[in-house]
Design a protein that fits this description.
Blueprint (H helix, E strand, L loop, with lengths): L9 H11 L36 E6 L4 E8 L16 E4 L9 E6 L3 E2 L2 E2 L13 E6 L4 E13 L5 H5 L5 E13 L4 E12 L1
Parallel strand pairs: 2-3, 4-9
Antiparallel strand pairs: 1-2, 1-7, 3-4, 5-6, 7-8, 8-10, 9-10
């Protein structure tokens, strides 16, 4: 398993995600310098739209895959990359991101396998569009999503924007490893990503 992140906004998240994947930061260092402050009045955006609070996820169920797992909250590791679940049979939610059911992409990670056997997302690559994903939350409510597509991408071309970019609608991303195993690096060469929308 090897997803990714750090940030004040998507740019930082993308940089950290690339770090976990072992990718170079695509933005030159010089480009990261803060732009000089513009002269004149500062414009501040204000939206009148508000959203109800959504409780944190505690359980993930994917009937088509036989998945019924507690959900561990994941943060950032000291090096700024996203932590992965402690156990291979438990899914992990990237807590600094969106909560399942609120606007934005909620990201749940899971191992595909380990030396001890299959992981929670061993069959994620086989899930079909239309399959349901239920996320139970700490306040007793739940959110049901439907898979829209599944992609397998090389880790060197991880679609950061598609997975982590802000959305106005509640969405869900399930991420694990896939493809062939690189014995030299001790990791899989690809990521499997299942995209889902709120049902």
């Amino acid at each position: 398993m090897s997803p990714h992140a750090r940030l004040p906004a998507l740019a930082t998240l993308a940089v950290a995600l690339l770090a976990v994947l072992g990718l170079p930061d695509p933005a030159p260092r010089a480009a990261k310098a803060a732009a000089p402050a513009a002269a004149g009045p500062q414009v501040v955006f204000h939206s009148d739209r508000t959203y109800d609070a959504v409780a944190a996820p505690v359980r993930l169920r994917i009937p088509a895959l036989g998945v019924d797992s507690k959900v561990q909250q994941l943060g950032l590791q000291p090096d700024g990359t996203i932590a992965v679940p402690d156990r291979t049979d438990v899914a992990g939610w990237f807590a600094p991101g969106a909560r399942p059911g609120q606007p934005g992409p909620a990201v749940i990670l899971g191992h595909v396998d380990s030396t001890g056997g299959p992981g929670i997302f061993i069959r994620l690559a086989t899930v079909r569009p239309g399959a349901t994903v239920r996320v139970d939350r700490s306040d007793g409510t739940s959110a049901t999503f439907r898979i829209t597509k599944v992609s397998r991408v090389p880790k060197v071309r991880f679609p950061t924007d598609l997975v982590y970019a802000p959305t106005l609608d509640p969405t869900l991303r399930l991420v694990t490893c896939g493809g062939s195993f690189d014995r030299t690096r001790g990791s899989y060469r690809d990521n499997v990503i299942a995209f889902a929308d709120l049902a």
